[in-house]
Amino acid sequence: LRALLPHTKEDLKLDLGEKVERSMVTLLQRATEFFYEGRRDECLQTSEVILDYSWEKLNTGTWRDVDKDWRRVYAI
């Protein structure tokens, strides 16, 4: 996984639009910090919350109506 991501958390851009709630951006930032600090368990727990919530956002309507930033959240 390290080989696929930027070398530092500062290089990982989380530029998401207004459709993504601030609380989700905060969780993404925490997961990023945990990952780069080598805190795997905390990173995995936080990532599971992010995945579950973003999955719900992706599946609440038709695909074309889902904001692209929610697709990015799920992909991150």
UniProtKB/TrEMBL annotation:
One of its GO terms (molecular function) is methyltransferase activity. One of its GO terms (biological process) is methylation. Keywords: Methyltransferase, Transferase. This is Lysine-specific demethylase 8 isoform 1.
